Amino acid sequence: MKKIFIGAAWPYVNGDLHIGHLAGYLIPADTFSRFCRILGLETLMVSGTDCHGTPITLEADKRNVKPEDIVSEYTPKIHNLIRFYDFTFDIFTSTTTQNHKRITQEFFLRLLKNGYIFKQKTFQYYSPEENRFLPDRYVEGKCSFCLAEGQRGDQCEKCGKVLNPGELIEPKSKLTGSKVILKETEHYFLDYSKLQPKIEAYVRENHHWRSFVYEETISWLKKGLEPRAITRDLDWGVEIPIEEIPENLRLDNFDHKRFYVWFDAVIGYFSATVEWAQKNNRDWREFWQNKECFHYYFMGKDNLIFHTIFWPGQILGQNLNLNLPYFPAVNNFLFLEGQKFSKSRGVIIDSLEIGEKYGSDYVRFYLNLILPEEKDSDFKWSDFEKRINGDLVDNLGNFLQRVFVFYRDKLKGKIEREVDNEIKEKIENTYKLIREKMIKVEIVSSFNLILDLIREGNKYLEKNEPWKNLNLAPKTIYNSLLLIFNLRKILNPFLPETSKIISQRLNLKEIKYEIGKDNYLFEILDPQEIKIEKIEPLFSKIKV
Description:
Elements: E1 3-8, H1 19-38, E2 42-49, H2 54-63, H3 67-85, E3 91-94, H4 98-113, E4 117-127, E5 132-133, E6 139-143, E7 151-152, E8 168-173, E9 181-190, H5 192-203, H6 211-223, E10 228-229, E11 231-233, E12 257-259, H7 261-279, H8 285-288, E13 293-300, H9 304-316, E14 325-331, E15 334-336, H10 351-358, H11 360-370, E16 377-379, H12 381-410, H13 421-438, H14 443-464, H15 473-491, H16 496-505
Parallel strand pairs: 1-2, 1-13, 2-3, 13-14, 15-16
Antiparallel strand pairs: 4-5, 4-9, 6-7, 6-8, 9-10, 11-12
């Protein structure tokens, strides 16, 4: 690997982001981005606001305002969140840009030219009372597969089935509660059955994916892929390029038709790269046609198939030899005290509010421990308090404080550069194991290795008792500082603010990311480099 491309899921701008968004894709993507950068790999991380989905139009209709008003209200809040957590996006753009519109249309036209798109009359939900076709999220009913109530028209959140029009039992309008019917309309379809051989060959080469990601993708392929509509009867979204479509392939009626959000949103990964390249006088091909560039994507499991089948299919259908997803880092769901997040039911933790109250690294610390990488996980306030007060304050904070105070007040800065091989091996082993795990985006187990190393530091102090063995104290404190000196680098991708503060306490420069320079390696501490003046505790206990 020489280059890394990171695509983080694009959040809808229909509300404030809760901590499920942080745990699902934002913090994992940022942690991995920082890890790649400290390895010296040229890294490009992109994302943006998804402004064209029906969640936006639904929110607008509920308030009787325009979709643009919803976008204008929530976009600044998302940008504020990104600044607060200092996420390392190289570009965070929007699906409303002219660049994105043009590239989405180009993707469509190439798919059409290459024979992967056809037009077909189909049935869509229609509200006689409202006299209009209804997007999928405007419709709810009972899933015909698992019989779960209150499911939307395109996907059942209970069993995960993608639903086609007509597969909801007793469908009704979310806005009015009136019954809806199926009515004929004409749309463009992307022929995934035609693309299946290419998609299947790609998927079967990627056994390194998380097991549940690979298995679910394979199960979809075994059932056989079917054509999927890529347009909808809407007024809000990327327009279909009517004038560039051959007459025999044009729809009967283009009025009130736009590209379906699932089709255009994933193209944002590519359009964002093009926008970044234009702004920085670079060539997008460096990241999309260079086979030494590996593509990682971060999303929740409700977007799994979109990133392992649908998006790869759109890429393969371009016939441009574009890079495919190397690792879709799909996370499961985060719950709150056993309940699914729901703003209407008050089951919510706002990402910015919790960060402002406790600090960004306190939030990162706990989420790094409970990220739903292999299974759903649960945010519990009592556990949040326990892990912060125990693992962060008592384990890391106490270790740092004891070493800093003893170094400054007892030894007056006089330590001996004599490396203890036991400490050196533990630090080197931690670097090695985290490197192996993080390339597979195993953040939770990597972070636990760091906590284990900190515990080893505390044990080392207890075993050598520098407060009793004053002759050995200079060596003991040197090796403890050696661990801390390396810990600031080991911690950097996971707790960037803490890493920065440790550097400041040691009177060292912040860790800089340099392309081609691998900083995630064991390094010997020169005692002359450090000077500790401040010894106030880095962390304080919390009460929720």
